[in-house]
Amino acid sequence: MNVPVTLRERRPDGQVRKRTLSVSVDESHDTVADVLQKLSSQCGIPDSRLQIVLGGCRLQAETSVQQLQLGPSTALLALVAETRDESIRAPAVDRVEQSGRRGFSSFFVYCKSCKGVNAAKLRVHCSKCDSTSVQVQREPERWSHVLRSHRIRAECYECADGEEKEGGGEEREGAGDGGAAVWARFVFKCATCSEPSAALQHLRLPYRAAAAAAAATVDAAATVSGSTAAAAACCICLLPLESDSTPPSPIVDLRCGHPLCLQCFAALVKSGLKSSQFSLHPLFGYTIGCPWPNCKALVKDPHHFALAGKENYSEYKSLAVEAFIASDAIKCPHCTIAFIWEAPEQPDQPPRPPHPRPLYAIALAVSQKGVSSTPDEEEPRRPIACPHCAKQFCGVCRREPCTCEDEEAANRVLFEATTRACPRCEARTERTGGCAHMHCAACGADWCFVCVATWTEECQWNHWFA
């Protein structure tokens, strides 16, 4: 296959020269070193001065091309080091080697195009210009680093070139071979069709299969056999999660020590939907827990429920929306869109805009700050603006025009008609049944509910059952 390579070289005068070349590679046999040699023969630059960057990291020469999971739209970035700069041969972050040790296809996604679970490849983009000509400054260490924004810093070479053009071609301070400082944006793509897909953080290969893949990746001399590690069993069907006779399949691991096979997880979701085992969690939305007794682990990402099939996933989303609305969501009286309203943290601050995500997205992945919040009671007349239609309405009665004053007037009339004031302390008391003899809970006075005076013998004879 032919792979496009963008060659980036900084000249002695500080100007950056970029060329796009096409290199023919053999995925089955070539390594990065072979690609460097082919690139060197085309550009006339010694391969010792070339370094290839993919996925935000510099690649090692011994890495096989097959490990890179190149797709039809994949483009490589080649950097040219100055003769005196030997540090470029040592990668700043060795993502490929580390990924190989835990199985390069250790990520899995649910691909809508393929309609199923596939191995994933992780790509890195610039959060500013969306270019893939970036290099991360440190290796992501946990899922939050790749699933959430503004977690990992990177250097973008496209943004650096743009800054130099705006600056009249002047070299940036400390530029050298580096790029502009930006935030990295990680994208998971299906390894089969290269479509961006939802990452499934609870899916992994069984440990024996992952160890065998790692051994094959790093060309280890020893092979991993069934005797090296005991095969784990599904916590529902109790069958081994891997065998020597069948290819390894991903399993569901909630990090609680109770793994599940995909078939049992799908059955768990179906059963949970029918028996109402799902609940609305303030951090993870409408979700279900581990089936093991007394285990508190939860499914943290609702995309995993797509493993139960299209119909069950549609049912799940409908139930999630109903649970969200029933919790305390605000429903716009104009367009009937439900959303979360975040009250200001300080009384003197303006109100935050409502959460811009659509209802189903909020229902599936509730904000970390909680399921919802109500308007500030100290300022009950603060209007709320719908994020969908931008129309405002009252944050208390949630109507437009506001009916709070009409309701308060009606409540005031009802309150006056059904309650009496204690003749000693004027605390309002409602009579719900029994005799007219009232005992004030506030001051301890005994008084008559009919004549609203201190209880006397006359009240006992004339007003006892009035």
Structure description:
- The chain is α+β, with helices and mostly antiparallel strands.
- The protein has helices at 32-43, 95-101, 143-147, 157-166, 207-217, 262-274, 310-327, 359-364, 404-418, 457-462; strands at 2-10, 16-24, 50-54, 57-58, 76-80, 108-111, 116-126, 134-136, 153-156, 180-190, 198-199, 203-204, 251-252, 279-281, 285-287, 330-331, 338-339, 383-385, 392-394, 419-421, 428-430, 437-439, 446-448, 453-454.
- The strands form eight sheets. Strands 8-9-10-7-6-11 form a six-stranded antiparallel β-sheet.
- The N and C termini lie far apart (98 Å).
- Mean pLDDT is 76; it is low at 84-104, 169-176, 217-230 and 345-380.
Record field, number of beta strands: 24
In helices, the fraction of residues equals 10-25%
Shape label = elongated
Q: Indicate the proportion of strand residues.
A: 15-25%
In spatial order, strands of the major sheet run 8-9-10-7-6-11
Mean pLDDT: 76
Instruction: Tally the helices.
Output: 10
Poorly predicted regions are: 84-104, 169-176, 217-230, 345-380
* Class inferred from helices and paired strands: alpha+beta
> Main sheet, how many strands, which sense, barrel?
6 strands, antiparallel
Computed Rg: 33 Å
Termini separation: 98 Å
